[in-house]
Amino acid sequence: MNPDLGKLQPYPFEKLKALLSGVEAGNNAPISLSVGEPRHSAPDFIQTALDTHWRGIEKYPPTRGSDELREAISQWLLRRFHLNNYPVSPVDQILPVNGTREALFAIAQCLLDRGSNKQVVLAPNPFYQIYEGAIYLAGLQPTFYNLDAPRDDTAPAGRPGYWDNDDPRWAQVQLIYICNPGNPTGQVMSKDALIELIELAERHDFIIVSDECYSEIYRDENHPPPGLLEAAANRGQVSDDKTPLDHCLVFHSLSKRSNLPGLRSGFVAGGQALIEQFLLYRTYHGCSMSPPVQAASTQAWLDETHVVNNRQRYNEKYEAVLPILAPVLPVEQPAAGFYLWPDLGMDDEQFTRDMYNRYNIAVVPGSYLSRTVDGVNPGKNHTRLALVAELEDCITAATHIRDYLAEQQ
Ligand SMILES: Cc1ncc(COP(=O)(O)O)c(C=O)c1O
Asked: Is the pTM of this model over 0.85?
């Protein structure tokens, strides 16, 4: 057996199941705010595309995907992230992936060098647990940086709490995972914060893996969150022997953007040499995308109407829920994502048990999504509320949470 398997922690939802085993559920109809699984309907045109292209299953699909899909992705990236100065080539800078989860895992196996004298791989805290498992199974150890660590006012907006720019430890870094916008915080890194990180990556020769799967669920139609490629391509000063994306990889998904978590469709894009190695790895890995899924994904990346509607529905939920919770919790709508991540001012496991026992509401304890770093666990006493349930259910849940917390105060 691979001994690194022993380093994997149970997934947060397994811990949640264990926490709630033996706890009796409240009498109310169940409401789940625990799993970040979108529940708005998938666009109808996806079914049409799957039906029309179903005979594609009679052939082995190439790992690099169809020209149509890569072209649609390239055009989407160009429009969404203003890449006119440096368009991402559909030929050798984009690969389809079967959901970003597998790709965020596989990229560590592909790029990390366990024999290197640089042994540091950075990951955010709180975080999406795949990063941690990917790093362990690539033979290295994660070094976590807290997202909400105190920083000075001169730092660019949304800069996570990783080391100061002149810290010598950056020289030991092979790769950093960032989650932008963040799950569960909804925090968005500004373009300046991204540029600062790209400059560090160039100076110390490490790779930035940017998980941008929440990039399309944002609050303000006029201010979409910036992405890593956007920051890299538009910053202007790159030396002759480098291209702007040499140290950058972004991961985008249709799961949250288009309500297609079961389609298993996303892509990775970035530096040509990195994509070339990832294609080689994936050829052996054997994870090409089914042709009907590729055809449906092409249609999804070409359409924005359903994405705008989707955002509106999340915004409606925030508008309804925040005034209910505000008297008892420090909450405001995050810049992006579909979560609330409040400090409860009480034990997060106790809160979770009580929510389930009294009201049949499922939430995740914040400490299940984070680790203790330098004596601080940023998830302690927090909860993650995923506003994925129907609007009425979100309102009901918020009302119960308010009543419960008011009782505790
Ligand atoms: C931060 C983050 N990244 C990546 C994923 C994976 O998404 P998918 O594999 O559906 O593309 C998720 C899913 O919940 C997530 O929360």
From this structure: yes
